[in-house]
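Sample pair:
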Amino acid sequence: MLKRIGFTLLTSASLLASAHALAQTLAVTPAETLETQGLTVMVDQNQFSPIFFDEKNAGIQIVLHGERIATDGAVRLNRTPEQWDPVPAFLGRTRGTEANQIVVRSAYKDVDLAYKVKVTAEGDGFRIAVDLDQPLPASLAGKAGFNLDFLPTSYFGKTYLMDAAPGLFPRHATGPMAKDGSGDPIPLAAGGKSITLAPEDPLTRVTITSDAGALELYDARNRAQNGWFVVRSPIAVGAKDNAVVWHVRPNVVKNWVRPPVVSFNQAGYTPGRSKVALIETDPHGPAPAEAELVKLAADGTRQPVLRAAVTSRGRWMRYNYAAFDFSSVREPGVYAIAYGGQVTNPFRIAADAYDRIWQTSLDTFIAEQMDHVGIREQYRVWSAPSHLDDARQAPPNHVHFDGYKMGPNLDSPFKPGEHIPGLNVGGFQDAGDYDIQTPQNAAVVRDLVWGRELYGLDWDETSVDEAARAVEIRKPDGKPDAVQQIRHGVLQLLAQYKVFGHAIVGIIDPAQRQYAHLGDAGSQTDNLTYDAALGTTERKGGSSGAQDDRWAFTTDLPANNLAVAGALAAASRALADSDPAMAAEALDAAKVLWARQQKGKIKAGDGRDDSGSPWSADGANVGATVELLITSKGDKLYADRLRGLMPVIAKSFAWVGASAIRAIPYMDAQYRAALVPMVRAAKAKRDAEIGKNPFGVPISEGNWAGSHQVVEFGSTMYLMHKAFPEIIGTDYTLNAIDYVLGRHPANNLSLVSTVGTASKLIGYGHNRADYGFIPGGLVPGVLIVKPDFPELKTDWPFLWFENEYTVATTSAYILAANAAIEATKEDR
């Protein structure tokens, strides 16, 4: 994090500048945004999700002084919409007939409501005008209105004026609520024609004036913790043209320039490795030509060590980048970087800089995500034993709101709604929600096996007692944590196989209110098996009448079977010494699951509808075949099959290359030779891809930030390096660990909570309602808000696409971190 020099002077200067704010006219850009220095208005460059609906990244959005402060500017059918409330379908965007005007067409097809929104630059702001295709019918009275959501953390503790009436934005949602049982909030303020948000703050002040109808201000957190402050104008019955007209005036500080961001690895550097910081600067401002490395002495003084010119890395997205190379500095110590009148937080140069960058991910984060057990860390109870009433059979022909799909065939001996015994063991809750996603559970098991085999992972900080359903963090029990977590994952994977004879899609809450549960996983259900003969609140023995048991989505899909086969085959190696019976059972199941899929073409898909492309069964087949090959120490059956899969390996080398390389010791020289052109082609493709940005890693531009992609890139490239050092170097792996530990766009926080000097300490985990974090979890990281705005919110946990920990991403990080540690040993 950057510390301001002369903070008081700069603050005073900022306030003075606000008094001389200049009317800066917005202009339409080639990307069809409205822009001026210090202000961007995005107009539906990002759309509502067809699966997750309202992700707080859609409609009209405002980026003011470098922060996205407003989103979801659109006609809505709720005063304070929750995530799965109706959202408009985006139909198209065009240039308007007026100068600097953008027109968006949208519709709610279910209620026959179509409209266009015209966004036009005017004066020192912009006008929003809503035209309906048809007069608003009486059936939508009190429902339809134009909403614009404002980020709560940008306004906590600040004031507003509704006309001249003052109010305060509350830190915690405290109502008022309607007394009619609807659960709807009452406006914080209503009835005015003008509202000014944060009149005291020149950086976040926005004034909205309404021509048609009064304004309302709501705190949507009263309905859901992830809600924003909502400014709204209801649409009157019969209104059509100019149904809503707003004049929006964001205060833009004259000649505002975003401060530079100096990004680096927050865990520091080992003495012999490359050390390059990246500097992100606003094109409107100065970019000093030099940076300085300073060493911090015991008395707090800063001793200049290296002053050097920075090297341009060009423009990427909306910012300019330069590199500061201090690789020549090898002396251990505590350092910081001075640039443009600012000094970064400290970091270390030390031989042991990376000795503790992955352990917390294993002993705390993955432990906290364990299902069907209670988790304690000294005085803190993370969770009581959870979901002991798992699970009920999901119904046929059902699409779940979180993306799970069940077709007409259940692939299960159980009837819809029937209790399925045997599933309430092992497994990991996937993310900030509490479901078990089978492919991700398989990935965790495989990653931890690889970590043991490739890097040791000899670490014991957690005790696991499966019989007692008890886990204690910071209580070593003499057993490697990785082995215990592998066993915990295998318990769930084997349970599925024993019950159904195949892997399933996963297990998840049936109702939205239950799914939105925040806090202790152990209280999400009553842990009592549902009995239809009991009343809703009745309990008897180990049963109850509450239909809160999670649903099992049981579709038999080849991709899932092969992912599980690979995980079980790998686990059989890791468990051979500590639990030979389970190891044998896992291997037997892996062989059966694998053998079923070796005849004819195999269907893609994993039973979820939340990805852009189907889960590759062919790729999973490569992984499973390799794991069985390794376990069998080169059995001809698996070696021959792997040769037959060479076209798949060649086509999908970016995804299966790591597995293909692990097979080399068990295959002949011809196999290795066949991989050489694939490795060269992969290098060329990766070099072209990463050459488009200054960070040296692949950066996702989709609707979910890409730290998982980065860490898999880092670990895969290291395996390629070990197998083909003449082709692949270690820079790829070190760039990947630098990225996730701080050297990325937007800010310089480590994306792994509590790892490094400054890290992401507000995350989208089970404790997100407390604005907390889970130690060792890896967040998705920097999202590119289209068209060109890199974003990573530091203080608002509820943007899952930037902040949601996932268990498979974190296990992938453990591999990448250990690969980086090994890479640094080559640079001593």
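The CA atoms of residues 107 and 113 lie 6 Å apart.
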